[in-house]
Specification:
- This protein is of the alpha+beta class and 1526 residues long.
- Among the domains are: 498 residues, Haem peroxidase domain superfamily, animal type (Myeloperoxidase, subunit C), CATH 1.10.640.10; 107 residues, Roll (PH-domain like), CATH 2.30.29; 215 residues; 98 residues, Beta Barrel (Elongation Factor Tu (Ef-tu), domain 3), CATH 2.40.30.10.
- Helices cover 43% and strands 11% of the residues.
- The chain is built from 53 helices and 37 strands.
- An 8-stranded mixed β-sheet has the order 18-17-16-15-21-20-19-22. Strands 35-34-33-32-36-37 form a 6-stranded parallel β-sheet, with helices on both faces. It has a 4-stranded antiparallel β-sheet with strand order 25-31-28-29.
- A hairpin with a 3-residue loop joins strand 26 and strand 27.
- Helix 29 crosses helix 51 and helix 42 packs antiparallel against helix 45.
- The longest helix is centred in the middle third of the chain and has 31 residues.
- The protein starts with a helix and ends with a strand.
- It holds the Pfam family EF-hand_1.
- Its EC number is 1.6.3.1.
- InterPro entries: DUOX_peroxidase (IPR034821), EF-hand-dom_pair (IPR011992), EF_Hand_1_Ca_BS (IPR018247), EF_hand_dom (IPR002048), FAD-bd_8 (IPR013112), FAD-bd_FR_type (IPR017927), Fe3_Rdtase_TM_dom (IPR013130), Fe_red_NAD-bd_6 (IPR013121).
- Pathway: Hormone biosynthesis; thyroid hormone biosynthesis.
- In the N-terminal section; belongs to the peroxidase family.
Length: 1526
């Protein structure tokens, strides 16, 4: 015992010893505590409430510790009850004991012991009922069980054979009035009025107060009636409302206390409430002690008790297990089937039954826990019951117990009836009681060896024979209660008598406050003698309307001559039947439906958030389109005078699309989409005739315009008026231009059936091209499709100019398309027939170089005289430059063409023949020999057929390469080396002298795996640590609740649900807080510069954030699923189980009925916060997806800022501590503080406005911003910042990579307008808005932040790959590299390869400017730039050949690319990363590691990663890939 506890107990004792201060106090004695503590001065806990039972004899558990002996070792308790305790009822007591003695016995029992409360964790010993059972038997496949839950036990016991389980007595063992005043001071206070020393009364002064609070009184359900009023009488005995006997006795002693208090108040009107109450209490307790020990106990045992020997402080008054679980329950045999009611004149009244019928007596089985008993509503009802009990003779003292207890004892709601005998037998086994013979031996009695020896007077051989069969004729196994009841005859047998007498004597002798103890100062000798002379008869006369002579003097017996004999012994045939056992489902159909709907709704949160996100995305997209349309509208001409809105029908499986119909001045019908983009053009003025079909049904809205040689245009209008208006406008536009316009009517169904839609037209054109190429190329006829009737008809169609341009991948108004179409259209009708198209592609695909050059020449030989003027020849070359989308101006292009002619010696000629043109192509016959064409993506070119520029000024190398097989080409690419040669441009690649490397697939896989581990070892270690900790925490909780948390009851109840929910919660508690560290940008940037960067992959922080978030949300769903299981289990679990699981929320008051599912979801803090968290998670994760984040960054920004609410709700969610103490805040504090510090740093920077010093609107939607560099702003090339512009009406921060170099005085960004925010930013810096703002809108800056591209200096050779806007980090790196080189700054990197992948060179001209700057400053040629233009790849080889010719000539003249204006190498198509990396392995054999840095769309970075992995299979140079996607 600790010092603090000793001090506390001492102070408490002093407070007890000094209850009152003042000389005039009427309380001059030591007031006895309500909880029984400190009665024994040596051992304060003896006899106190919640003390453990004592054992007179060693426990007999099957394992010696706590496991009870059950079937099959011992017989079924219900079978024992049916055999040994059934029989005829209504037999009167041998000694004429009255029923009032039975009622008083119940009260005495509840005064000194209460051990029926279920224990924690809940353990069950249900009693199985046989199918042939006469009352509970059932033919159902489901077994019938009499529910039994093991009693509460002292948790310090039950851990070894030396310390077996011992149950707890929840009331004091003393006869101290605890059944009247309660077992605690707070309980007593709840029963008092604190006025005149009275106990609180109800509607009548003579009746106790009723309450439905359920905090004090045990509130078991009534098995005989449906639930009604839940109000119970308030007594000191929590089980006082169990039956009619306990209720009556409770009312008697309630009245007696108030009688004494009122009398004392009359005698001592100056006394305080406390003085009156304590004096009355003292007298009540003493009277009760006297009656119980000296009047009732001798009557009960049938023999006198010993006189008081004086206080014996060494005696333990504790209730013995043998007394509590067996001996005290002897008087069950005395309990009658029903109770009479009579008045003072001996008139026996009928009792009112629950159905309002009447019967001679009040049946016991229908009064258990009855809240609305009509026979206990008034003072008179109670008086009549008391007088009836006094005159009624109890049941005979034998082994027979009435069916009201044996077959209709109250049970739980699951099965409303039970068997008191079977429960008593099972209770003895739960308590580990020794057998009947073991007790006899311990009491120095001779054990019985045969069944007849138990009770020789018991003339029931059949009973003994059947009982012997149950126990397998082994008397040593006979249960104590069964043997003790069988030996009873005219009173308790020797075993029970000994145990009962011993118990009461120990209680009396050990009680320091016993009324006969003259040393305690409670009473004087005269007062003691007055109490000894008080009988229960005297008490009843004072508290009832009975007078002397109405009740016999000895109320515990009714003898001949006593007043008002009972009419006759009561048998069950005279009474209404007991209500049958009923079962109740806690989870009925309505609960199932509501629970199911709620769970479905909860898991539809992601669907709801997805729908909301789609709506937001649609609104944002529509708003953005309107914004773009507004921008286009401000730069275009005014709209046509007349336009019509309709919907174009695209087919049965496609929804109609809204279009705008406009006629231009050339009678061309143009169709625009909602954004104003041109969809199609139809030249109607060139037609001979047009057929128009209109519908004559379905609101007359459909119109079909059948245009010869084109697809049918099917339009739906709003109404017939709009259709008529369009038709009239069509007639006016075509009037005088076509010969015939026919309008016909038919049904809408027929129109749609016969229409040739755009989709069908595309299939026809596809078939057209298939069969055209099948005649030229080596294509199987089966690949070209079946020549069905519809196909033959389709091949008779003719191509429009638009369809011809689309197959070439060019614009319809291109000069090249115009020339080629005019050349091929021999009949000049504006369409290409199948034969006309075939004639052209035959030359393209199979012609000789001379035929191809003649065809190209003929496209501009309009006069067909074999000569082109200088202007026509220049136009021919200019057409190819136009196709290339050259970066040159018109004057530069003309100068370049002149230089080309001068180099060929043709500059002095005014006209040019085909021979001159062919001479210009003399060095490019290899390209003209290529056979192949890329049309509609159907025929892919082989590597030999593709044009690529891989060397500077080396046409012979190109010619050689294009004639080699694919394998040799790749080998050639791998065998080239970059080096500088004096007076000439160097080759990019040279042939190395090394043999080809070979490995088997297994070795390659092993090598690839080794390189993967080497590349991602930091990532792997971090992931293993993070998820290892998460898994460890989850397993620890699962282990705890699965195996260790015995006191919680989880292992026996909701094992699966709790394990899943608590295990996942433990992992979530770690993941969510430490997820914050992955977005501490300032902390990450700082740590990247330390040694930690060698062990932690800071560049993968966002990826790790996503992974942790995904795992966390999955675990959150698992956590929710676990709680769904938990809620269901809790909804079908008894309150006794829930009270074990949640002792802070529930107290077991016997009501059994659990809370509804709505309570768990919506009325608890964890439930409500959990629902809110699921809703927030749904929105956060949906809006954080790549698709919605790209469309509505604002939605992502807002929903992700709900993280504050998430952490607050999560802390609250766990703080309720339903199952365990909150832990989340413990995990949250360390990362939360770091995150808060990081946020404070960012907030400090965000407050500073950054003025923009320069802004340019560059082509391709790029906005160049140059702004002032904040003081102390230090960064490295490749780092990025977050900026906000409040002028846009939002405080969103968006990340962008700095394109300025660290040595520059200002900061710069290149921002491409690809979304709403970036488009609005670009719009804000237009000249018009600058005038409105009065200057450049200011920015707010947060950063810089680091990422992997900073590490380019750590490698001797680095490869930088940028695509699209992903080139921005490399712009800063390239400028930084060249600057450091120019100032002789020493750094590890010796060579940088920069690969720029762009769709067209027009997309990012600003990159060209930066590369040009790098080329000018790169004196040491550290940087090798390669540009890949993907738009021109594999489209049309003849056209690409001409582009190549122009490019080569331009580089000869200007030493610059025709496409980019740079000296850098230009390629067509996508980069061959694998071949390129292969060549680097050979070019730099001395380099062990090469850093590869890519930034762009996921497709690009994936291809680079795949190439790196492929090369890392080989034991050569190791490629380390760093990437960033956008």
């Amino acid at each position: 015992m600790g010092l603090c506890e000793v001090l506390w107990r001492t102070l408490t004792a002093l407070s007890v010893l000094c209850p009152a201060i003042g000389a005039n106090s009427a309380i001059t004695w030591e007031v006895q505590r309500y909880d029984g503590w400190y009665n024994n001065l040596a051992d304060h806990d003896r006899g106190a409430a919640d003390a453990a039972l004592v054992r007179l004899f060693p426990a007999q558990y099957s394992d010696g510790v706590y496991l009870p002996r059950q079937e099959p070792h011992l017989p079924n308790p219900r079978q024992i009850s049916n055999i040994a305790m059934s029989g005829q009822s209504g037999l009167m007591s041998h000694s004429n004991k009255s029923v009032l003695s039975v009622a008083f016995g119940y009260h005495v029992w509840s005064e000194i012991s209460e051990s029926r409360r279920p224990g924690c964790p809940p353990e069950f010993m249900h009693i199985k009922v046989q199918k042939e059972d006469p009352v509970f038997g059932s033919d159902s496949s489901e077994p019938v069980l009499l529910h039994f839950q093991r009693a509460d036990w002292d948790l310090s016991t039950g851990n070894s054979p030396n310390n077996p389980r011992t149950q707890v007595n929840h009331v004091t063992a003393w006869i101290d009035g605890s059944s009247i005043y309660g077992s605690s001071s707070s309980w007593c206070d709840a029963l008092r009025t604190f006025s005149k020393g009275l106990l609180a009364s109800g509607s009548s002064q003579d009746m106790p107060r009723r309450s439905s609070s359920g905090y004090l009184m045990w509130s078991a359900p009534d098995p005989s009636t449906s639930p009604g009023s839940q109000e119970l009488y308030e007594f000191g005995n929590s089980w006082a409302n169990e039956n009619i006997f306990t209720v009556t006795e409770g009312i008697i002693w309630f009245r007696y206390h108030n009688y004494l208090a009122s009398k004392l108040h009359e005698e001592h009107p100056s006394w305080s409430d406390e003085e009156l109450f304590q004096n009355a209490r003292k007298k009540v307790i003493a009277t009760f002690q006297n009656i119980a020990f000296y009047e009732w106990l001798p009557a009960h045992l049938g023999k006198p008790v010993t006189s008081y020997p004086g206080y014996q402080k060494y005696v333990d008054p504790g209730i013995s297990a043998e007394f509590e679980a067996a001996a005290v329950r002897y008087w069950l045999t005395l309990v009658p089937t029903a109770v009479y009611k009579r008045n003072r004149t001996c008139h026996y009244k009928s009792a009112v039954n629950n159905d309002a019928s009447k019967s001679p007596a009040l049946r016991l089985c229908n009064t258990f826990w009855n809240r609305n008993n009509p026979n206990l509503q008034s003072r008179q009802d109670v008086d009549e019951l008391i007088m009836g009990m006094a005159s009624q003779i109890a049941e005979r003292e034998d082994n027979i117990i009435v069916e009201d207890l044996r077959d209709y004892m109250y049970g739980p709601l699951r099965f409303s009836r039970s068997d008191a005998v079977a429960l008593t037998i099972q209770r003895g086994r739960d308590f580990g009681l020794p057998s009947y013979n073991q007790i006899r031996e311990s009491l120095n009695m001779r054990p019985v060896n045969s069944w007849d020896e138990i009770n020789p007077k018991l003339n029931n051989t059949q009973l003994l024979r059947e009982l012997a069969d149950l126990y397998e004729n082994d008397t040593s196994r006979l249960d104590l209660f069964v043997g003790g009841l069988l030996e009873s005859q005219e009173g308790p047998g020797p075993v029970f008598s000994t145990i009962i007498l011993d118990q009461f004597e120990r209680i009396r002798n050990a009680d320091r406050f016993w009324f006969e103890n003259k040393q305690n100062g409670l009473f004087t000798e005269e007062e003691i003698q007055a109490i000894r002379n008080t009988t229960f008869h005297d008490v009843l006369l004072k508290v009832t309307s009975a007078e002397e002579g109405d009740i016999q003097r000895n109320v515990f017996f009714w003898l001949n001559g006593d007043p008002c004999p009972q009419p006759q012994p009561i048998t069950f045939s005279d009474l209404p039947p007991c209500t049958k056992a009923s079962s109740m489902s806690y989870f009925d159909s309505s609960s199932q439906a509501g629970f199911g709907v709620t769970v479905v709704v909860l898991f539809l949160f992601p669907v709801v958030s997805y729908i909301v996100a789609c709506v937001v995305a649609h609104v944002r997209t529509a708003r953005y389109k309107r914004f773009q349309k507004k921008l286009r509208g401000s730069t275009t001409d005014k709209k046509p005078a007349h336009e019509t809105i309709a919907k174009e029908w695209l087919g049965h499986t496609t929804a109609p699309k809204q279009v705008t119909l406009v006629f231009n001045e050339k009678t061309v019908l143009q169709m625009f989409d909602e954004n104003g983009s041109l969809l199609s053009s139809h030249s109607l003025g060139d037609q001979d005739h047009l057929n128009v079909l209109i519908s004559n049904d379905h609101q007359h809205r459909a119109l079909l315009l059948k245009i010869p040689k084109e697809y049918d245009l099917v339009l739906f209008f709003e109404d017939v008026g709009q259709r008529s208006e369009f038709l009239g406008h069509l007639r006016s536009e075509l009037e005088g231009r076509i010969q015939n316009l026919t309008v016909m009517e038919m049904s809408e169904k027929e129109i749609l059936r016969d229409a040739v839609t755009r989709e069908q037209r595309e299939k026809i054109v596809e078939t057209f091209f298939k069969h055209a190429f099948s005649k030229v190329l080596d294509i199987d006829k089966s690949d070209a499709g079946d020549l069905s009737c519809r196909t033959r008809e389709a091949l008779q169609c003719e191509l429009t100019r638009v369809e011809f341009a689309s197959v070439l991948g060019l614009k319809p108004d291109s000069l090249f398309v115009e020339s080629m179409f005019t050349l091929a259209d021999k009949d000049g009708n504006g369409y290409l027939s199948f034969q006309e198209f075939l004639d052209v592609i035959v030359i393209f695909m199979r012609g000789t170089p001379e035929e191809k050059s003649k065809l190209l020449f003929s496209t501009h030989d309009i006069k067909e005289d074999g000569f082109l003027s200088k202007e026509e020849f220049t136009s021919l070359l200019r057409s190819f430059i136009d196709i290339s989308g050259s970066a040159l101006s018109k004057s530069q292009a003309e100068d370049g063409i002149a230089a080309m002619l001068q180099a060929a010696g043709l500059d002095n000629k005014d006209s040019f023949s085909w021979e001159d043109f062919h001479f210009l192509l003399r060095d490019h016959s290899a390209q003209l020999n290529i056979k192949g064409m890329e049309v509609l993506g159907k025929k892919k070119l082989s590597r030999q057929q593709r044009v690529s520029f891989i060397e500077k000024n080396c046409s012979s190398a190109m010619e050689e390469l294009t004639h080699r097989p694919e394998g040799e080409q790749e080998q050639e690419l791998r065998q080239r080396q970059i080096k500088k040669i004096e007076q000439s441009n160097p080759k990019v690649y040279v042939r190395p002298q090394r043999e080809r490397y070979n490995r088997n697939p297994v070795q390659q896989w092993i090598q690839q795996f080794k390189r993967f581990i080497e590349n991602y070892r930091r990532h792997i270690i971090c992931i293993v640590i993070i998820y290892g900790i998460s898994a460890g925490l989850a397993l620890e909780r699962c282990y705890h609740y699965g195996l260790q948390a015995h006191a919680s009851g989880i292992p026996e109840t909701s094992m699966v649900g709790v394990l899943v929910s608590r295990g996942s919660a433990a992992a979530i508690s770690f993941l969510f807080p430490y997820m914050l560290l992955t977005v501490c940008r300032n902390l990450i940037t700082m740590c990247r510069e330390t040694f930690l960067n060698r062990y932690i992959p800071f560049d993968a922080a966002i990826d790790l954030h996503r992974h942790m978030a995904i795992v966390a949300v999955v675990l959150s769903v698992v956590h929710s699923l676990g709680h769904v299981v938990n809620v269901y289990v809790f909804c079908i679990s008894d309150l006794s189980i829930l009270a074990c699981l949640f002792p802070r929320v529930f107290s077991n008051n016997g009501s059994e009925f659990p809370m509804k599912w709505t309570f768990w979801f919506f009325k608890t803090v964890p439930g409500l916060t959990g629902v809110l968290l699921l809703l927030i998670f749904a929105f956060m994760y949906v809006f954080a997806s790549h698709y919605f984040r790209r469309i509505s960054f604002r939605g992502f920004w807002i929903t992700h800022h709900l993280y504050v609410l998430v952490y607050v709700l999560t802390v609250i969610h766990g703080s309720y501590a339903l199952l365990q103490e909150p832990r989340f805040h413990i995990y949250l504090i360390p990362p939360g503080l770091l995150f808060l510090l990081d946020k404070l740093i960012s907030l400090n920077r965000k407050k500073v406005e950054i003025p923009v010093v320069k802004a340019e609107l560059l082509p391709s939607g790029v906005t160049y911003l140059e702004f002032k560099r904040p003081q102390g702003f230090v960064y490295r090339s490749g780092q990025w910042v977050r900026i906000a512009c409040l002028a846009l009406g939002t405080d969103e921060y968006h990340p962008f990579t700095l394109t300025s170099a660290p040595h520059e005085e200002t900061l710069s960004l290149h921002i491409r307008a690809v979304g709403p925010w970036t488009s609005k930013l670009r719009e804000a810096y237009t000249p018009e808005n600058l005038l409105e703002f009065g200057g450049y809108p200011k920015l707010y800056l947060d950063g810089p932040f680091g990422e992997g591209h900073q590490e380019w200096t750590d490698y001797e050779v680095s490869v930088l790959v940028g695509a699209g806007i992903g080139v921005t980090p490399f712009a800063s790196i390239l400028k930084d590299l060249v600057f450091k080189s120019s100032v002789k700054f020493k750094f590890h990197c010796k060579k940088v390869y920069f690969i720029w992948v762009t769709r067209t060179q027009h997309q990012f001209e600003w990159v060209s400017d930066i590369i040009r700057e790098v080329e000018d400053m790169d004196a040491q040629e550290l940087v090798s730039v390669h540009i890949y233009i993907t738009q021109l790849a594999e489209k049309f080889d003849l056209r690409t050949t001409m582009l190549y010719v122009c490019e080569r000539h331009f580089q000869r003249v200007w030493n610059r690319s025709l496409f980019t204006g740079l000296r850098s190498i230009t390629h067509f198509g996508r980069p061959p990363f694998l071949a390129f990396l292969s060549s680097l392995q050979e070019v730099h054999p001395e380099v062990e590691k090469i850093g590869v840095f890519s930034c762009g769309p996921p497709g690009l970075t994936k291809n680079v990663e795949k190439a790196c992995q492929q090369k890392n299979k080989r034991d050569q140079t190791h490629f380390v890939h760093h990437y960033e996607n956008f």
